[in-house]
Amino acid sequence: MALRRPRHVRGAADPGGSPAGAEEAPGTPIDPAQLSFADRDTRWIAGRHAGAREVPHDSRTGRWPDGRPESVVPESLDRAGNVPPVVPAAGPSLRYPPDQGRRFGFPAGHLTDRPGTPAAGNGRAATAHWYTVAGPARPSDGAREADGLWLELSPGRLVEVPGGLMHTLHSGSPESLEGLCWELFRPGDTVRVSAHHRGLTEPTCVVLRDWRPGLRGALGDVPAVLTVLGSDPESGALRLGGAGRELQYPVTRAAAERHAEGHTVRLTPDNRLVPWSGAPERGDAVLLGCDEAGVLFAHGVPAGPVLLAGDGWADDDWIRGELAGARNGPAPCWP
Prior knowledge:
Elements: H1 42-50, E1 62-63, E2 70-71, H2 101-104, H3 109-112, E3 129-136, E4 148-154, E5 157-162, E6 166-170, E7 173-176, E8 190-196, E9 205-212, H4 216-219, E10 224-232, E11 237-242, E12 245-250, H5 253-258, E13 264-267, E14 273-274, E15 288-290, E16 296-298, H6 317-328
Parallel strand pairs: 6-9
Antiparallel strand pairs: 1-2, 3-4, 3-8, 4-5, 6-7, 8-9, 10-11, 10-13, 11-12, 13-14, 15-16
Region (Disordered): 1-98
């Protein structure tokens, strides 16, 4: 399944000198792994885009016929079957880099002010939906930690939800989540949220109802060594992981057939597979396990001892102690 870049799509100018996705020839296939932040198969991602609808941001402009207020909810824009246009970043990619989110993304109103949500002032919550987390929303100056989330409404359409708008429900009333450590949320996680209209004088908040962390939170922002646990050429996916954890990685049919079960791959932070050299490189993330004797090993890495560094653990030295205990056995063991 090859999704191709439309002839009319052009990207914004890139500060680095190259247009953001504008130089690729029309019809150039886009890597399925660059189409979405969702850790799902290619068929699912294509369906998510085809099912997306573009709605005007100003969906609550009112009028006063006969002296009575009446809301006007415009229909979706009639463009290419209502499927919203997308603007790829350089690559081309719809997985926008963290420092370019505000160039390509939208404000929270695209999530909170949508046709079909309850009218402001009625104190009711809209229907909750699942969305993919594109990453924590960090200040542009990089001086402070994240204060909110980027959510993917559909491939290529991100919205920034500030932490001050995020709430949880306590006894039916929204309670602010401001101050939550948003850095814990990683690309590929999924959250179930809904808009909650509290009153005419208060801004609509976003209620966080559920959170399903993915594997990437354990991998960090470094390349990761993973094992191919299986492939599905029909839907276009590889199952990557180890130690009882896995993620779906979208690929073309040819790529799914090329990566046999048991192969080792190296996944970069920008979601690309690069050649595996046969050994982890300095700074790579690996998934650890231990055998029945309590000996540590790295999934996907040829047999060899796992040595624990004596320094660099900072406040996480207790983790080293747990791992050392597993190595010296007997101790709690992981798959």
